[in-house]
Specification:
By secondary structure, this protein is low in regular secondary structure. Helix content is 14%, strand content 10%. A three-stranded antiparallel sheet has the order 2-1-3, with no helix packed on it. Strand 1 and strand 2 form a beta hairpin. It is globular. The structure holds zinc ion (ZN). Zinc ion binds next to loops.
């Protein structure tokens, strides 16, 4: 892995989150780092998120259950 790339990514994460306005109650999102999908219909066992929880209502401390990426590193999945 390129260390400089990682540092650049961290800087980017401090900027305003993009795209999250498009998230609805059933919107699935995919981690852009490890491709883990958050599906509101399933919730998240790792974080004990009950099924039916929209991505936008996840607790602020929720991160990718697989790689700990921040919520703003998730991209909307279009069905
Ligand atoms: Zn991830």
């Amino acid at each position: 892995m390129d260390e400089r790339f990682d540092r650049q990514r961290v800087n980017t994460m401090n900027e305003a989150p993009a795209r999250h306005a498009a998230i609805g109650p059933n919107t699935r999102l995919e981690c852009k780092i490890c491709w883990t999908v958050y599906d509101p219909a399933l919730g998240d066992e790792v974080w004990q998120i009950p099924p039916g929880t929209p991505f936008s209502e996840l607790p602020a401390h929720w991160t990718c259950p697989n790689c700990s990426a921040l919520q703003q590193d998730f991209l909307v999945l279009d069905d």
